C-alpha cells in the first residue's frame, strides 16, 4: 500500500511540474522588447543619389557616386518644416565636398563605421540631436575624371568605377519627405 501511495504522489508531482513548465514556456513575453520599440519609433528616409566632386591640387580629380539613407526618429521628422530628403542631401554635400574621405590607391583602408559615425554626428548637429539613429550606405563608388570623360564622350564600354563600399540593399519603398 505504501508503494502505491508513493507512486501516486510521484505521478502528481511530475504532472504538476509538467503543467507548470508548459504554461511558463507557452506564455508570451510581458511586452514588446526594447529593441522592437526602438525600431517602431524609426522611419527609413531614402537619400537621393548624389555626385560629389573630389578636389585635389586645385582641380577635380574624380567623383564619388553615393546614395545614403537614414533611419530617423518618426516624431522628430514630423516636426521638420523643410523637406527632409533635400535637407539631408544639402548636409551630405556640405559635409563631404573637399574632404579627403578615401585614399583611392588604398580603398581597403577605408573605415566604413567611422564614416557612418561622422555623417550621423554632423547630421544630428544640424538637424537636432537624436534625429538620425542609423546611417545606411546604399552606394559609395569612385569614378576618375578620365573615366567620366570617356563615358560622356560616348565610349562603348561601361564607365569604370571603383566600389568603395558594397552597398546595403533596402526594400524598394518610395522616399518619404517626412510630411
TrEMBL record:
Keywords associated with the record: Plasmid
Name of the protein in question: Flagellar basal body-associated FliL family protein
Residue numbers spanned by region Disordered: 148-179
